[in-house]
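User
New here, explain this?
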Amino acid sequence: MALKDIVALRIYTRVARLGSFSAAARESGLAQSQVSRMIAELEASLGARLLSRTTRAVTPTEAGLEFLMRVEPILAAVDDAENSVRETGELRGLLRIGMPATMGLRIVIPRLSTFTEQHPSLHLELLLEDQWQDMVKDAVDVGIRVGHLPDLSGTARQIGLMRRVLVASPDYLAEHGTPECPADIQSHRVVGGPAGSQVTSWQLERNGEQSSVSPNAQLSINNTAGALTAAVGGLGIVSTTSWACAADLKAGTLVQVLPEWKMAELPVHAYFPMGRTTRMSARVFVDFLARMLASEP
């Protein structure tokens, strides 16, 4: 396989994933006419139409989707082969990482410079979504998720744990009172967020004593940053991770509620949609993230 063929395959995967010739051209630093010509030549050599083009969108045909599923693991293997023989250990290529927005903004990105300095030729693309995305469709190499994973076809690795806490604003507590025991929460306003969106009750423990609370959320937000903003605004008590609210706790805009009561920790997983064909760069990044999580209190 000639180098120009590999380049054409890479361009095709980006056009198919991005749904746009112009977006793929900008990403690759090529003219749109060059990208269009490369795709046309690829389709001609295969004798098949890979992309359906309309004025509104570019989408893979049935044959194009099948080709995409088969060629992406091959390109990942090519990247790994190239990276494995570089004496410097420097990684190259594109690494697409999906993770919750608040985790990316408050935890990972502020600590990412060490990794990028070690691998200056590796281009990172972060997809920050609190909701579980279609990682195959979005061509995500590794997804970082907090909480228990649904049944998935790829492989996963637990890389850490996150402590859950209850928080509220000082103004809210001044007006509505501070809960002294879990049962008191029943009479408080609660903001539902991603950390507690899949459960109907909060389980708390103190010195072996168990307590279950079924909060009645007046407001629910599917984004952790939004739920924290609501809590800072005095809209109620929020269940979140200690990492997510660390800056607010330090600033005093939020305070912990029932600090002597503990909630179950949430596992942090790295999910690899491509299983054994996962890129080397994805595995190296996950190792870095696991060390980072382990080093934090």
Remarks:
- The CA atoms of residues 169 and 254 lie 4 Å apart.
- Residues 1-85 form a domain with the Arc Repressor Mutant, subunit A fold (CATH 1.10.10.10).
- The chain has a mean pLDDT of 86.
- The longest helix spans residues 62-84.
